[in-house]
């Protein structure tokens, strides 16, 4: 079990259900830097079920209405958080990843999370424990050991830069160009999350330095994108290719092992659901195992979580392909407006 969002959420739920839990995390500490996450109402309700929902809300801020725009600033579609609030009782909450992990970690007593402890022999781990939770992320070793290389990571056709900038913005959203897009969301007073996505070959290394490459592509886009890029040098920036899991797993369990989060259904970030679904997975798994019958609980978890998360992964990949379009942009924009008219997954 990894010490990320899914692993910590599961640990809190399992302990509440009476289980003795150990979390093995290969990193030495919790991260102190990271960009923001949108925590949707369904995930907030799951966090309420394990007693940490209020703390997560307090660690972030409600997301305001935003928009998806074209590079000249014209609006393609409104991102209506008021509609989310009307339907589900509250909006999306924006929470920095370190803040979310901090809340989850503080809900566990000392000694539960073992930092600097990568998992070695997976067979031994399964033999020595009643249940093993594989929450070891997008490159899950446990998934590979159980299901082989056929179910592996596939390149989604784009690379992404993520960072934060010392800048105030009132609302967030995305801007879609030709094979490129830029997103911004407020993180708090004087702080803004941003990400830039470029359609590119796998392992793309731009000819220019990263800041100059982003200014070349996005520097002439509407405000405040140039102002964000002007602060690149002071940002904590990560760059990586986007991947998804394909083909989908035939089961989220094998023997006494349950997979969750990115280990089970790694998806592109286009619907903002990766962290949310890991949270819901963890709470669902803990609930399914609360009766003490491991085999029945794992079957119930797989029935409850596999199909919904795999449908979301497919939908996210479709949005990814739309956002990277290089032709038929008016048709793309119309399809986006139609899709959002049915409401986002909350």
TrEMBL record:
Q: Where is the FAD-binding domain?
A: 2-107, 132-312
Top-level division of the source organism's lineage: Bacteria
Q: Which residues cross the membrane?
A: none
Oxidoreductase is among the record's keywords: yes
GO molecular function term, any single one: FAD binding
Which keywords annotate this record? Monooxygenase, Oxidoreductase
Family annotation (PANTHER family): MONOOXYGENASE, PUTATIVE (AFU_ORTHOLOGUE AFUA_6G14510)-RELATED
User: What protein name does the entry list?
Assistant: FAD-dependent oxidoreductase
Top-level taxonomy: Bacteria, Bacillati, Actinomycetota, Actinomycetes, Micromonosporales
